[in-house]
Amino acid sequence: MAVLELANVSRHFGAIQAVNDISLTIEPGEVVGLMGDNGAGKSTLVKMIAGNFRPSEGVMRMDGQELILNRPVDARRHGIEIVHQDLALCDNLTAAANVFLGRELRRGVWPLRILDYAAMYRRAGQIFAELKSETRPRDLVKQMSGGQRQAVAIARTRLSDARLVLMDEPTAAISVRQVAEVLNLIRHLRDQGIAVVLISHRMPDVFTVADRVIVMRRGRKVADKAIKASSPEEVTGLITGAIEQAA
Asked: Where does the record place the ABC transporter domain (predicted)?
């Protein structure tokens, strides 16, 4: 059964139709590339899935049941996590502290409960090992590479047993070596049965790691097909409007 299903979902802001009649499904352990030019509606679509916006029309379903999200915490409760482009990390804290930020582990009996740093370091280390990342729990974020920072942000999604991870431009402005590291992190999520939506402008990344590509233009879905059945040239044509609709 699909992790997430959107049926004829639209979102408008007054007279502006940001997303228009989108239907799609996302399966467990599937990496879906979401592509489109600026203003195509990608961000609005992702924000609906992440609980920032309610659809104006249409229905979202998870496991066949209607999914109603009023705020991001509702999405997280259903196993939907988002890794923002800016990552929202605290540079002055360790990797483990960032992983558990807002969800710190404590020990002792109230009112003498204190932070359990040992448990957080141990669990963060386990998550980094699962992700095959070289990031170490005690390392300060400000001393990390772009790839290691992505590993910290992705590790946070593993605390809540995420079923769907939305990744917003994870390979923007990082080196070629770090891009390879981030793509490997995405593969490890997929191998654990977690679905990933990769929002990206980088064609090579999508065609390297995604199973399927969805292209949006002017709020509409103009392609939804297996990577093996498409090509960078076709996707470029769809994004620019040179091709109206995928074959």
From this structure: 4-243
CA dihedral 232, 209, 43, 179 (to 10 degrees): -100
pLDDT tens, position by position, 177-231: 888 989 999 999 999 999 999 999 999 999 999 999 999 999 999 999 999 999 9
- Terminal alpha carbon distance of the chain: 26
Q: Which residues contact 176 (CB under 8 A, 6 or more apart)?
A: none
**Long-range contact pairs involving 13-16 (C-beta distance under 8 Å, separation at least 24):** none
Q: What is the mean pLDDT of residues 41-59?
A: 95
| Mean pLDDT in residue range 29-33 | 97
Q: What are the residue ranges spanned by the domains of the chain?
A: 4-88+161-240
